[in-house]
Structures are given as C-alpha cells and as structure tokens.
Design brief:
480 residues; alpha+beta; 3 domains; five-stranded antiparallel β-sheet; 8 helices; 21% strand; flat; Flagellar hook-associated protein 2; bacterial flagellum; cilium; cell projection; FliD
C-alpha cells in the first residue's frame, strides 16, 4: 500500500488535503457540540464562583453592623499628653476622668560592685576565668517568683560569657559588661518594668568545692542592699542596685491604681492610658456624631454591591445577544429572592416605630438595589436611635443575624452553590471521555480514508501504466 507521503502520485490528486477536509467535516458537528458544552459549563462554574464571592463579601460587610458598638464612634483625648496619652475602642462609654500620675513603672538595674574583682591581678572580663558551675537567678518574691538557671563550662567561663549566657537564654533579663574606669562591671537590666520582674536573689553553685572560684562572687541577695545614697543607689555585698524596680501608681478620680507597666487598661472601660510622666491630666471620652448613619449607609452600599453583581450575572444585552454567565439560573434566582425577602419583611418581635428598613426611609428599587431617603433616615436616628440599632443588631431576629444565616446557607461547605459547582465540574470532567472517543473515531476514519484513497491511487497508477503500454504498441504497429 502506498505510504502517506506518496499519496496522489498515481492519480495526481492532493489526497492528503482531501482526507484532512473529509475528516474535519466529519469532526465538526461533534467537536462543536463538545466545545459548546464545555464553554457553557465553564461559564456557569465561573459565574457561580463570582456569585459565591459576592455573597461572601456581603457576609463580611455584615460584621460591621452586627454589634451596638458598630453604630457608635468614640474619641478619647488628654489635655496633657506629656503626662498621659489615651486611646479608646468603640465600647468605651462617654465621660471625663481626672488622672493623677504619681509614679511611673520602671525596670530594675543592678551591677556588680566596682571593687568586686579589685584583688584579682590583671582581671579581664574576656579572659579571666570565673570557674565552672551554675548560677540561678530569682525574679520576684513569694509564690509568683520565677527562676532561671545558667551554666558556665570550662573555656567559656568569663564575665563576658556570663553576659552571653544571659542574653542568649534569659526571658527576663538583659546583660552587659561596662568598664566605668575602675574595672569591668556586669550589669543586669529587667526586660520588663515592675516589681515582679526585679532580681531578688542569685544563688551560685560552683564546681570548685573549696570555695575559691570567682564565680562565687556573683551571689546576690536583695535583702542585703543598704539604704539608697543621694544618687538613689543601694549598695550590697556583691551588687549595687542602680535603679529600683517599681510599679506605676496613679489615681483615677481619686481611686488609687497600681500596675507593673505604664500601659494601663481595665480601669476605664474600653480605654487604655499610657503614662509618660508624673503629672496630672484630664481625659475626655466623647461619642462622635454620625457613626450610626455611616454604618447604615455602609450596609446599604454593601447590599447594593451584591445586587449589582447578581444583576450582571443575570443580564442580557439584546443588541449584542450576550448574556450573563448565570442568565436564568435557578441558584441565582434563589439568592436574589431570599435576600430581597429578608430585606423587606418586618423584624419579628420588633416594637416601636422602627420595624423595617422602610421605616428608616430605605426602599427597594426596580433593579433590586436600595435607596435612602436622607431626611427620613436622619429623623429615625434622631428620634428612635435605639430602635434603629436593635433593628440591625438583635442577636436572633435582627436584619444582620437573619442575613448572615442566609449567607452561611449559600456559602457553607454543603451549600447549594458548592453542590451546584461540584455537579458542573463533574459534567466538565465527563466531557474528556467524549473528546477521547471523538478523537479515536476520527483517527479510524482517517486511516480508512487513507486505505481507500491509497487503493484508488494504486489502481489509477496501474491503469496509467497500461495505457502508456498500449499507446506504445499502437505506435509500433503504425510504423510497420
């Protein structure tokens, strides 16, 4: 049989092109059907993804009108920020408070005495061995005290090695070695302020049983500290306290408050005070106007954004003939119907003058979006503010709670959108075997056409050869 490359040699026809055209003509109806189904299914999957995203975004926006604090905005200010700065969350109640800062919290700092190693010839913080062993530092007192234990090994047992061990391993202390002109001194500073973070003892357990190790000199007992000198320094046997750990102390409207830090919370509801200096300040917490109106308007805009997306997915342009990805889709209609129902119906059990969004001057337009009557909204907030807030925030029957339930229903793991998407993806996957069967059928058709045209080509080639032979024979007879 003639090869594909020699097709048409006998007949002079472009058989390869003829076979391709016949196969393409046979493939076209089936391929178009598969392509149309694939395009339609992919568009629906894409549309459902957009639908789910829009509903999820709306659900996130509902979080901004779910609590009473979402309808109020609070501003906190201090008339003396050099002494006290202030911040407040939306739950802070309005009020004015007198704050008198009498003491700032500060971290403890202790240092080895300048003469601690004066009897050691050529003492060096980086080379002189203190000896191996462990030292345990206690911070705080009583049941709340904490301890940290560190070990020095041979070859890594200098004053600088003590500093490195503290900085690398301690949660509560920073260490440094400072030479004040009289020799190196080891300095410990608490990482956090407050009395609970002060070093109260250092116990040393040197490996040298004879007690000659220099490491023994790092023992400390806060009870051994003398009274402070004129610089406030309290000297002890081995260490001196350069700065005492202390808690912050302040009076808020005459009530004494102490804290281990200069960030004070829990004294005034929803308010955090930052103490900067010993002085007095007046703190004012005020409620800013317009927060409730902004919350309502943001809700309306979020709902309208959802409705615009739904409208685009269900749109049809008669001029271009183009339709939205979910035109006429039952899932889309279900979302639209449910949302519009919840928006328009009264809140069950609501009392007073505000029971629906319409009572706020919020009405539904023909395209499903909401429109606000500014004057009616302003009147409702001025005259029935609490009813407006309850309309949205009631935990069981409020608009936000009911809409959030609908959002969860449409976007949850077993939601109608997810189930529908999975079904469409299964149908998309089912197109692959159809494509394979079509390709196989076209391959068989191509092979059959090639066999048939090859046979025809060979026959024509033989006939041409016979005709040529007869022509030659007739030519010889005519010459005789």
């Amino acid at each position: 049989m003639a090869s594909i490359s020699s097709l048409g040699v006998g007949s002079g026809l472009d058989i390869r092109d003829l076979v391709d055209q016949l196969v393409a003509a046979e493939r076209e109806p089936g391929q178009q059907r598969i392509d149309r189904q694939e395009s339609r299914l992919e568009a629906q999957v894409s549309g459902l993804g957009k639908l789910q995203g829009a509903v999820s975004d709306f659900g996130s926006a509902l979080g901004n009108v779910s609590g009473e604090s979402d309808f109020r905005s609070v501003e906190a200010a201090s008339n003396n920020e050099s002494a006290v700065t202030v911040s407040a969350n939306r739950d802070a109640p309005p009020g004015s408070y007198d704050v008198n800062v009498t003491q700032l919290a500060q971290a403890q700092r202790i240092a080895t005495n300048s003469d601690l190693f004066e009897d050691v010839e050529d003492f060096s913080a980086g080379t002189t061995s203190l000896g191996t062993g462990t030292f345990t530092i206690t911070l705080g007192e009583g049941d709340d005290a904490v301890t940290e234990t560190f070990r020095l090994e041979e070859g890594a047992d200098t004053l600088q090695d003590v500093r490195s061990a503290i900085n690398n391993e301690s949660e509560f202390l920073r260490a440094s070695v400072v030479d004040d002109g009289e020799g190196p001194r080891l300095v410990f500073t608490s990482r956090e302020p407050g009395q609970a973070n002060a070093v109260t003892a250092i116990e040393v357990d040197a490996d040298d049983d004879e007690g000659d190790a220099l490491l023994e000199r790092l023992a400390f007992d806060a009870a051994s500290l003398d009274d402070p000198d004129e610089d406030g320094v309290r000297a002890g046997d081995n260490f001196s306290q350069l700065r005492e750990a202390q808690n912050a102390e302040l009076f808020v409207d005459g009530l004494r408050i102490t804290r281990p830090t200069n960030e004070i919370s829990g004294v005034i509801d929803g308010v955090t005070l930052t103490l900067n200096a010993v002085d007095q300040a007046r703190v004012n917490v005020t409620q800013e106007p317009g927060a409730a109106e902004s919350a309502v308007r943001d809700f309306v805009e979020a709902y309208n954004s959802l409705q615009r997306t739904l409208g685009d997915l269900n749109a049809f342009d008669p001029e271009s003939g183009e339709a939205g990805e979910l035109k006429g889709d039952s899932t889309l209609r279900s979302v639209q119907s449910r949302m519009r129902q919840l928006i328009s119906e009264p809140v069950p059990g609501a009392e007073g003058a505000v029971r629906t969004l319409a009572d706020l001057g919020i009405t539904t337009q023909r395209d499903g979006t909401l429109e606000i009557n500014d004057s009616r909204l302003e009147d409702a907030l001025n005259e029935n503010r609490l009813d407006v807030v309850r309309l949205f925030t009631d935990s069981e029957n409020g608009i936000t709670a009911r809409l959030q339930d609908a959002v969860d229903e449409f976007t949850g793991r077993d939601s109608v959108i997810n189930n529908r998407t999975e079904s469409l993806q299964d149908r998309l996957a089912a197109l692959a075997p159809q494509q394979e069967r079509l390709d196989m059928r076209m391959d068989r058709l191509e092979a059959r056409l090639i066999r048939q045209f090859s046979a025809m080509d060979s026959m024509i080639a033989q006939m041409n050869q016979t005709s040529e032979f007869l022509d030659n024979q007739l030519g010889l007879l005519n010459q005789q």
